[in-house]
Design a protein that fits this description.
Layout (H helix, E strand, L loop, with lengths): L5 H17 L4 E7 L6 H19 L11 E7 L4 H13 L4 E4 L3 H17 L6 E4 L16 E3 L4 H13 L6 E7 L2 H17 L4 E8 L8 H9 L4 E4 L3 H13 L6 E3 L7 H5 L7 E5 L9 H13 L9 H16 L5 H8 L3 E3 L5 E5 L4 E3 L2 E7 L13 E8 L16
Parallel strand pairs: 1-2, 1-3, 3-4, 4-5, 6-7, 6-8, 8-9, 9-10
Antiparallel strand pairs: 10-14, 11-12, 12-13, 14-15
Helix pairs in contact: 2-10, 2-11, 3-4, 5-6, 7-8, 11-12
């Protein structure tokens, strides 16, 4: 028998370890969002950011546990709750245990209910819902469940910070509220009315209406009503094509006041507004790009632009999802036991490369973090969006926004 030298033994061991890492099963994350139709650009941009974050933060650093890499598996839900439930079942049948979704709270509400039912009935194939952008407050209140984690601030948290800025502007005496006719749009409107009424009772809400989501081709009638109302400012939760269509029409029809938004950046929106949106469009968001928050964030952004020259990191919370999931799986020592992973996520404090700390509040699985109000501009930018020369620059910050806000969540744990 051939004698194995010390060097040979080390080489053999290296081959064994390398082979084990090579054949370690990937940890798959199902991305269920629109990849076709009117909101395809929004969904595709989110998919690219998930794929890059997984490679940049996890896979390039050797993966988690014993070399397991993150793999993002895309499913087109066509922004339909019904189609989303079909894709959810396909993902579960493929053995995927982590579901990421963010576009449309209507979809998120359907998914969280289905996942809760599935997990109660099928304890051997439980899944976690990683909600990165659906901000209907009900998801972490009356409809909360152990399997759902929201990494974005909910509509109420964002509106609380946004209305602090609005009531501090003495030039704003009249506000027009407009949004998409579904759960999120209604939540934004309700929050705007409540917070403005509490903080500045003499401020007049001169318009409060909803329009069909993804179906309005010409926003001129809405824009004319806004202008004729005498409003000094507009508040909207619109996103995707509806944000661009509304904003462009409002500006083109002569409205000169600030337009306060949730999602008026990136995915072609910033480039389309261009000079017309300068000093007009305001955005409430998490994560600071202008100014860039850290050298780590700069490296991530530069790497992303190298891979996707026409893309933007306009949803930095996606990187928080990947980073926090990686830490939770490492802490749990397993990716298969989602109860252990969820327990590790609860109460986690995570230092985000985009600035500040993320706290996953255990009582409702709502991420608490700094919120920034920024302005659409081409002045003093570290990074623009859409290669347009324009971006969003932070004007004010609310640290750990709504940390002590109440919740009606009554969490039932397995």
């Amino acid at each position: 028998m051939k004698k194995l030298t010390k060097l040979g033994a080390v080489s053999a061991l290296s081959l064994i370890v390398g082979a084990s890492a090579a054949f370690a099963e990937n940890i798959k994350i199902a991305f269920i969002d629109p990849l076709s139709g009117p909101f395809a650009s929004t969904g595709t941009n989110g998919l690219h950011q998930f794929e890059f974050a997984a490679d940049h933060m996890i896979n390039a650093n050797g993966g988690v546990l014993e070399g397991q890499e993150f793999e993002i598996v895309a499913f087109d839900n066509k922004i339909s709750p019904k189609e989303s439930l079909i894709q959810l079942q396909v993902a579960i049948d493929q053995g995927i245990r982590y579901i990421a979704q963010g576009n449309s709270s209507g979809v998120a509400n359907a998914l969280t209910e289905a996942i809760d039912k599935h997990n109660r009935r099928n304890p051997d194939s439980r899944v976690l819902f990683l909600n990165y952008a659906a901000v209907d407050p009900a998801l972490t209140n009356d409809k909360c469940n152990f399997w759902h984690f929201r990494f974005d601030a909910n509509a109420d948290i964002k509106m609380d910070a946004l209305t602090d800025v609005i009531v501090g502007n003495e030039d704003i005496k009249k506000v027009y509220v407009i949004g998409q006719d579904y759960s999120f749009g209604k939540a934004v409107a309700a929050a705007a009315n409540r917070f403005l009424g509490e903080k500045k009772p003499d401020l007049e809400i001169v318009g409060d209406e909803l329009h069909p989501i993804g179906k309005v081709k010409d926003f001129t009638p809405y824009a004319r009503k806004i202008v004729s109302s005498g409003a000094d400012a507009v508040i909207t939760g619109n996103w995707g094509a509806d944000m661009l269509g509304l904003g462009k029409s409002v500006i083109e029809n002569g409205f000169e006041g600030p337009i306060y938004t949730y999602y008026a950046a990136g995915s072609g929106i910033t480039g389309a507004f261009g000079e017309s949106g300068k000093d007009r469009i305001r955005l409430i968001s998490q994560g600071s790009v202008n100014p860039i928050a850290s050298d780590e964030a700069r490296a991530a952004y530069d790497g992303y632009k190298a891979k996707y020259p026409d893309g933007n990191i306009d949803q930095s919370r996606i990187f928080n999802v990947i980073g926090m999931l990686g830490e939770a799986i490492t802490a749990a020592g397993t990716a298969d036991d989602v109860v252990a992973v969820a327990s590790a996520l609860e109460g986690m404090e995570y230092d985000s490369m985009w600035g500040g700390k993320i706290f996953m509040r255990p009582q409702d699985h709502q991420a608490i973090q700094d919120m920034h109000v920024g302005v659409h501009t081409n002045d003093g930018l570290d990074y623009d969006y859409d290669n347009s020369g324009y971006g969003v620059k932070t004007e004010s910050t609310v640290e750990m926004a709504s940390m002590d806000s109440p919740t009606t969540c009554k969490m039932k744990r397995p």
